[in-house]
Structure formats: structure tokens, C-alpha cells
User: Fold this.
Amino acid sequence: MQQELIDKYGRKLDYLRLSVTDRCNFRCYYCMPEEGMNFVQREDLLTYEELDYITKIFVNLGVKKIRITGGEPFVRKGIVDFLELLSKNKGLKEITLTSNGSISKEQISKLAVLGIKKVNISLDSLDPQRFHEITRRDKFDEVMSCIKELLAQDFNVKLNCVIDGKKNIDDIVPFIKLTEKHPLSVRFLEEMPFNGTDKFDIPEWNYKALYSYIESHFPEIRKIIDESNSTSINYQVPGYLGSFGIIPAFSRTFCGTCNRIRLSATGELRTCLYGPPVCNLRDILRSGPGEEMLKSAILSAIAGKAKDGFEAENQIADGSKKSMSFLGG
Assistant:
């Protein structure tokens, strides 16, 4: 019988979010401090061979889905070759991606061949000027071209929009209108306390405020069925091809059904996005103790998983939050 990752609250953890780099070609204000950040040295990153070795152990422990994150995954050289290697793992049922839209047409075609057809794009505005203010980069047209190409090649596309009351409230209605003629899902996220500093204000635009605002513009919206272990509460405007959802990323109402584990590009294993790293699998792997030691470290980490994100956050000793580009979301 296959061993599974089940925590003390009975949650089966079968979904690994795997960051392959902390580097990104954007500089979104909520992800990185304005002055930038010190990226890790290349030798500190897990190699693709090490990532493949570790992911096989996770799959042997019952992980069925892996989401590739960053930073921006497609700034790391050789990422498509790694995805091809990962896709050969027969025990893995699904590989998905999160990107800022820096995927070329050629790379999109290769993803389709590999059967990787679910992509989340982080996009916080449909207005080029606001996009530039948020990302500090002039890449709006490039990102929109990526989204159009993904849809043209029949990818399952979700757009993730972090809502800030001072920056992009005016984008909420246009995003929902985008789902009228396009079969995509837009998810609106509460702000999260991960900007690389210890300064964070509780978001005014929580999921209740977001719902009220949307309902005032689209009173006919209806609730639709959420996917298993979904972090979003999902809705649709009748007659629209696509849908939208609200992710209570700060309120954390989804913790009770959490099935996620996170591994950073440097090997830090987190059983909760909001908590500290439990151990470093890179260091264990490079010390040469073998597969059993890695399995033991993973199982020990799962055994100590916090009940929810608030309990996990309280375990961070100095109160500071790492940049989301390092954590991978």
C-alpha cells in the first residue's frame, strides 16, 4: 500500500507547489520591495536533476499534482526541458503552471505537446498604465499576447488579480466583462503579507467587500460549484463563457481543506504558505544520506503542519515575511 502524506487533522496533502527560481523579470510592488532584493546565487538553487529526484519522492508519497511557480518560471534557462522530464513521471496526474505571461508562442506549443494545458497568469490590471505602475515594467502587450495565444491553443487559463483599493479597483468590472466572450476564469485575491518587509496593513478589500462590489455591478451573478480543495469561491454571470472567483488569501477561510505543500527553489519545505520553512531538502540531499532521510524529513514536516495559516504565521520568529517571488505563492 502506498504511503500518503496525511497530517494530524486528516488532510491528505497531494499537491506540491514547486518554485524553480526566485528571479522575476517584473517588479510588482506587492511581491518585491521597490529597492529590489538580493536573489540567491545559482549554486544555491536546486538543479533540475535534484528537483526531479525530490519530486519523484513526493510522488511516491502520494503527490498527484505539481504546480510550477517562481519567481517567474520562464526566466530560468531550460525550464521546458525540465517540464518534459517531469511529465515522464507516470505517477503524476497533473502538471500546472503559474506565470506572469512571459511565455513565448514556441514555449506554449511545447507545453501543449507535453499535455500541460492549465496555466495561471498573474495580471493585476487591464489598463496599460496601471499595469506599468503595478509591475514597474512596460510589458502589457506581451502579456496580453501570451493570454490570447494560450486561449487560441485551447489552454485552461486563469487570471489572478491581487486587489488593492488604492490601485486597481477600476479593473474589477472590466475583468468580469472579459469573461463574457472568453472561456477563462478570473480570480480576485485579497492582498497577502508577503512583500519582503515586516510592514503590512490589513486589506480593506477583503472577500466580503469584493463580493458586495461585484454584486452591485452584476446583481444577476450566480454561485457555481467549486473544484475540490479550491481556494476560490466561484461565480458566473449567466450567459458568460467564463467565470470569476474570489480568493480570501488574507482571511484564509480555505485552510480547513488545504492539500498543499510548498518547496522553494533553494529547497525550503513549507507545509503552509504563511509559516516558516520546516526543513531544507536541498541540504539533506546534498549531505548524501539517501532517499530514506528525505522521506523521513518530509513525513516529519507533515506531522507538524499547523491547523491554519494564522497558527502558522505565529510560528515565524521575527515577524518578517519573505518576498512572494521567493515563496512561489
User: Anything to note?
Assistant: DSSP finds eleven helices and twelve strands in the chain. The longest strand covers residues 156-162.
